[in-house]
Amino acid sequence: MRRGILVTGATGNIGLYAAKWLQEKGRVVKAAVTRPERAKAIIGPGIEAVRFDFLNPETYRDALAGTDRILLIRPPALNKPEQLYPFIDAARSEGILHIVFVSLLGAERNPFPPHHRIEKYIRQSGIGYTFLRPSFFMQNLTGPHRMDIKEHSDILIPAGHAKVSFIDTRDIGEAAARILIEPERHNGRSYSLTGPEALTYSDAAHIFSEVLGRRITYSNPSLSKFRKAMLSRGLPKGYVNVMAVLYLTTRFGMASRVTTELEGLLGRPPVQLAQFAADYLEEWS
């Protein structure tokens, strides 16, 4: 019986933590990555790195071989749901038993982001599944928004004055890993995952000001100004458009909900934003 677990996005904000947590628990883990040799330096020894590309079906079989569970993370650059469908079809054909898909908070009632249709396709595939629907990643502030904080002491995000239940991707990775160890307990379930509290970006700027020791502002740009700024940095148009849609839904309060479901999966309280800022202090220094 196959017992391996395939982790897509294994060098990213969620997949890396999930893969390492599973490895520490003695599980067989395969990392599906675009550049295996480069990935080995990130994921470390003990985890097999296999070349994989959602847009290249020829890479599917080797990635899926010897596994029966998948942590499925949509690459930000793939903004069309159908770009993931062939891989889901292949997973069914190869006998995969369970997929944990990292979706989006509120995806079940929001048809605009690609997560909504990907969830639907997985349900229709007949493969066992669990959907994780997290709120806004704290690590986005170390990713596409890092330079604004570092160089301009500003959070350039068009979210208005809405509250956001920020979540640490380290917590999401651990939650996904725990589910993958006991998928039968979570089959057909969907979890809305949030941090411990809902904060405005003005609140976040205040927290960052205290932790970083300098004044951080929240400029609250318009969607058009934000989009123009992101495109000027060379980010793919599709990626920027998805970001804009997500922040538009944030303005409507769709990321403000706070749940206890993450704490239930972890058996401990989620990481708070102040702790996250302290842990990643060097990113903005």
What would your notes on this structure say?
The chain has 285 residues and is an alpha/beta fold. Strand 5 (98-102), helix 5 (115-125) and strand 6 form a beta-alpha-beta unit. It has helices at residues 15-24, 36-43, 60-64, 85-93, 115-125, 146-152, 169-181, 201-212, 223-232, 237-251, 261-266, 273-279; strands at 4-8, 29-33, 48-51, 67-73, 98-102, 128-134, 154-155, 189-193, 217-218. It is 40% helix and 15% strand. The protein has a 7-stranded parallel sheet, sandwiched between helices. The protein has 12 helices and 9 strands. It is globular and about 50 Å long.
Please tally the helical runs, counting DSSP H or I stretches of 4 or more residues: 12
Number of strands: 9
Characterize the overall form: globular
Query: Could you say which structural class the secondary elements and strand pairing correspond to?
Result: alpha/beta
**Can you summarize the main beta sheet?**
7 strands, parallel
State the order of secondary-structure elements, H for helix, E for strand: EHEHEHEHEHEHEHEHEHHHH
β-sheet strand percentage: 5-15%
Mean pLDDT: 94
Q: What is the straight-line distance between the termini?
A: 49 Å
Radius of gyration: 18 Å
Helix content: 25-40%
Question: Widest sheet: strand order?
Answer: 3-2-1-4-5-6-8
Task: Pick out the low-confidence regions.
Answer: none
